[in-house]
Amino acid sequence: MKFKSKLGPAIVILLSFMPLLIWLIVRQGTYGLDGFKTLTYSLGQLTALIGTAMFAVTFVLSTRLKAIENYFNGLDKMYLWHHLLGAISFILILFHPILLLIKYLPENFKLAASYLIPGSQFGYNMGIFALLSMIILLGLTFFATMKYNNWKISHKLMGLVYIMACFHMFNVFTDITLFASLRYYMVLISALGLTAYIYTLFLKPKLADKYEYVIANVQTSKAPITILELTPLKEKIEYLPGQFVFLKINSKHVSNEQHPYSLASSPSKDGKLRLAIKSLGDYTSQLKNVQIGDKVELEGPYGRFNYKQKLNEKQVWIAGGIGITPFLSFAQNLAKNNENNTNVYLYYCVKNKSEAVFLDELNLLSEKNNKIKVIPYYSEIHGKIDADKIEKNSGNLKETSFFLCGPNKMMESLTKQLKTKGVPRRNILFEDFNIK
Questions:
Q1: For residues 175-207, b (16+ Cβ closer than 10 Å) or e, as one string?
Q2: Which CATH class is domain 2-206?
Q3: For residue 144, which phi and psi values (nearest 5 degrees)?
Q4: CB count, 10 Å around CB of 163?
Q5: Residue 337 phi, psi (nearest 5)
Q6: 281 band by pLDDT with thresholds 50, 70 and 90
Q7: Which CATH topology does 210-302 take?
Q8: How far apart are CA 51 and CA 162, in angstroms?
Q9: How large is the angle between the packed helices 148-169 and 122-143, nearest 10 degrees?
Q10: To the nearest 10°, the Cα dihedral for 71, 74, 78, 83?
Q11: Tens of pLDDT, residues 351-399
Q12: Rounded distance, CA 50 to CA 48, Å?
């Protein structure tokens, strides 16, 4: 499993940088890197080739195919690679015209400007339009406050940008024209990216695993958190504790956007589910208005965040705020199956007691299985949680498996602290819900 989860990132890196390897072979090493003009031209070619290959891989990673997810140890990890490659490919593609432009400065400003200003050659114009469109769409993504549906539309338009980029790449004179092996690879990787884009846009809505449920109960808390209880209309979804689903609600009280949420319930025979969703924006703040009887569609399950991946019998679960949801599923399953070979310290980290919405429930589960020790942690009283405080309450950390779910800053800080304490990185598992 460990090897399998590392295979995905390795393949992604190989696919992205294969143009560089092929280029070095066909160019016989560093030939083409001697002299300022040849150096800038060659680097301009390489940034475009690598950036375009990475761009294609991002489409593959956005398909949410479970077969691919398995090689990243969860969809959340796969999406992290998607975001990372997207950012790097944008930077590389942006440097492509800049490096080509520098080649002709300061001798020929007119020729240099031709790389940025549309002219009579359609192939070159496609490259300029693709770059400008990419800048606009990513600028909106990074710097503008957009509603989720508008954000999704902007991402769908990225496919059209890639088509323009491919048209430019194969219709201008470059190293692709000169070297068949390079051309064949870029055709292959571009076709892979465009196939993934077409699948996501047209085929995935029909082929993805989806389940119809109905809202059986709606509860709200002061946190504010909306708790939805769901029952299956037909086939029930099969999942593991800690997994998540993409939820779409068919209700006049909320838009039919699709969002990911952890399942806050343990697998059961009747197929009943529970979701606990904190109000963090326009969509989530309207969830309290949905009605009993409203139909919902679930896609999934996704994720590999599961306490049964344990490396040690002693485990520490650390939940930050609404990050408690997968641990509710963990604790319910652990108590229900009376798994006495697992010793758990669950830190429920919130601002104050009023935000510890599920504390009573967790205490009851702890009574059913005394191997679960629930430790409420209030930042207003105790300050920020850290490795020293965990070690004081839970003892030796080196022979412990850690499961973290909460704000990214909290998880990053704790990971660094735990590693300083001698905890191997492989013993620290986390759920990253920075998926948009």
A1: bbeebeebbebbeebbebbbebbebbeeebeee
A2: mainly alpha
A3: -105, 150
A4: 16
A5: -95, 0
A6: confident
A7: Elongation Factor Tu (Ef-tu); domain 3 (2.40.30)
A8: 11
A9: 160
A10: -160
A11: 999 999 999 999 999 999 989 999 999 999 999 999 999 999 999 898 8
A12: 6
Q: Which of 173, 150, 279, 303 is nearest to 226 (CA)?
A: 279
Q: Answer whether 0.70 is exceeded by the pTM.
A: yes
Which residue type, as a one-letter code, is found at position 35?
Answer: G
Q: Which residues contact 223 (CB under 8 A, 6 or more apart)?
A: 278, 322, 354, 355, 357
d(CA 394, CA 373): 10
Helices marked H in 258-385? 282-286, 325-336, 359-368, 379-382
What is the rounded CA–CA span in Å between residue 434 and residue 161?
A: 25
Angle between helices 325-336 and 359-368 (to 10 degrees): 20
3-state DSSP percent of the chain in helix, strand and coil, to 5: 55, 20, 30
Token pair 């294969």 is at which residue? 18
**pLDDT tens digits along 287-325:** 999 999 999 999 999 999 998 876 678 999 999 999 999
Q: Which two tokens stand for residue 255?
A: 């838009």
**Topology of 307-431 in CATH?**
Rossmann fold (3.40.50)
The partner residues of 319 in beta bridges, in order of sequence, read 348, 405
Q: 3-state DSSP call for residue 345?
A: strand
Question: Which residues belong to CATH 2.40.30.10 in the chain?
Answer: 210-302
Q: Cα separations (Å) of 16 from 80, 81, 191, 261, 346?
A: 16, 12, 14, 31, 40
